[in-house]
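Format notes (please read before filing issues)

Several people have asked whether sequences and structure tokens are stored in separate files. They are not. Every record keeps both together, in the order shown below: the sequence lines, then the token lines. Line labels are part of the format and must not be stripped during preprocessing.
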Amino acid sequence: MITTKHTIVRSVVALLLVSATVGFCMLFPNAAENSASGMVLRLPGREEVPGHLGFERPVSKEEKKWLPEDTGILKMLYVPTALTASNEVEAAEAGISVSLILSGMDRRSLHRPEVCLRAQGWRIAGKETVTLSVAGEDLKVMDFTLLRKVNEKDGTIRNVRAHYVYWWIGAKRSTPSDFERILYTVLDNMFRNVNNRWGYPSVLVYADLKGRKTPAEIAVADAEARRRAFSFIQQNAPLFQKSLGAAEAE
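Then the structure lines:
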């Protein structure tokens, strides 16, 4: 008798859950065919960043493996003009590395940046939300302080430090928060019938640690790297973020 009652209760609960699911599906239709993007894949050209030359970087094998085929990717490295003849490592560490990733129809196109950064050997030593003034608007971004050890050809180990600045761009809003991106995705889909095709801009700038060993000297290197990253965003985010002035290519 007890078993029968439990079976009836489970059946009723299951029926209620199915009914609720059907009801929500009718109230909030699938937004998959109503996708919207707040970012375009556009970055400054080869000679459009003062004092730098820009070089388009290829999509890596890892990115091709991890991301769905309809994911949009544009990557540039802006190297100081005086160092364009330097070796690849020196040029990369002196430059400004910028990536734009735009999700496709599959929402799994984008994931938390910690996943890729740790896979590349970086350790995240600090996180800070920063508000920048861009095109007369307040833009909130996330700044990661990154650390990594590099094995040199002569067998020595070199400490490397960098700042990685990113944020998420949705159809009508942007946020530096991974949690908010997921929350907005659900709420926009349910209540606005919009499927955000999130954009994910990131800017990586290395801190120049040459001859700098004390905490005060490292702090200066950090400040310089942050300034370069923030300056690039303030000058160029309106090229790719629609809410800051970017327009779709004709």
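For reference, the curators noted about this record: Residues 31-244 form one domain. The first strand starts at residue 35 and ends at 37.
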